[in-house]
Fold:
Amino acid sequence: MAEKLLSNYKKLMEKGRGLFILQSAVAVIHWDMETMMPPKAIKLRSQQLATLSRIEHKMSTNPEIGTLLEEIMRHPEYDKLDAVQKRNVYLTKKHYDEQTKLPEELVAEIAKQQAVTVDVWKKAKATKDFSMFKPELEKLVGLKKKAAEILMEVKETATPYDALIDIFEPKMTAETISRVFDELKEGLVSLLRKCENAPKQPDTSIFKRKVPVDVQRKISKALAKFIGYDVESKEAGGRIDETEHPFTTGYYDDVRITTHYYEDNFASSLFSVLHEGGHSIYEQNLNPEWIFQPVGTACSSGFHESQSRFVENIIGRSREFWVYFLPKLKELTGNILSDIDLDTFVHAVNQVKPSKIRVNADEVTYGLHIIVRFNLERDIFADKIMVTELPENWNQSYEDHLGVEIENDSEGVMQDTHWASGLYGYFPSYALGNIYSGQILAAMEKDLSNWRSQIAKGNFNCVKQWLIKNVHSYGNLYDPLDLIKKVTGEELRVKPYLNYLNEKYSKLYGF
Ligand code: ZN
Structure:
């Protein structure tokens, strides 16, 4: 192969490597800010972050990257690069085009407006006053529309909203999402009605029992051990810290999660650790040969959610997991839960109950919260509805989808930070993650028909190894719709997820 082509490719990867290392350092600084930083450090921290972000921008828009990309792509022997090399070139070009085509003033204006909008959102949420939030949200949506129109050309999407979706879920379109979400909605609403009308209802009073925070920390460690997320040994690549909103950060050998501990709600930290643990084992098991390359990153936000929800819900809320873990939980909590039987506990962790707040939603109603948000975003960016009409549309949608009445905008349209933070196009990833997880489960069952009995024995490793081989190790070699096909042999389909839910909940609720 032409030497020039290979040496240019190497130079391109070298530039990318520096950027990945810098970004991983920024991630640690953000992590510190959320977990450890003393309050007085905030001013210094924002200066550090601003400087690093300027360096990052300079590195990622370096014209040398453009020249290298051009030389590589028009080289007569370009086709001799292998699939991984081509994917690296493609992903580098995509990132470079996005970074260079957006005018710097617009990027700065958006960053500034985001900070203002988040600040006003907090105040407006506290006082339940959408009219205070509205003008800032209108400005931010306007700026994001401008950016989306530019990105639309770079990403070659049909609509501005598709360009925003592409940031989180590459090559996914609102048209495809609308189609699968319509089917998902129908399936979820029908399942919800069945659960609501079922004779067997769960007793969730056990979750009110107080479990001391230091005991909950031990439970977290036991859960991490179960999924093989090492936070204790000398070789550990993970750790668990505490923040109000749990998150995962890092990749490869340094992946950290956070959780929160409420004495009167031990289930909250328990499932958040399983959820974030699912994210973390994905990041830790990307192909080790690809570190610091674009292919050595996760496929998409939706795929990330498919992995966290797989561990949290498909494994963590299964009867088999509790066959193994309930005795452990009883041991750790002394006499607090000693009288609870397995069936009561498993039904309780799978309670289905429509609610107003997304983050508290159960497995069945969660998707409906997302569908409401997706429909509104799509219509806002297609100029079909105005920001001022959001509360009315939100409240009506909640009544139609979940049958709940929203009393004020703080428990309605202002509940999430995403829109104030400018994260448009992000919400669909959550429900797409559920859909992917259903397909992944169906594929896994063909290879690992005894996975449930293995989990009941406390062996998660067989599931984990299957996920590593079939999902994690592919990193970012494929866009999500291609990866789901690679993993399952099928196109994106809602049925497997609905089948999984129906089978599980019909047993629990007795319908
Ligand atoms: Zn998540």
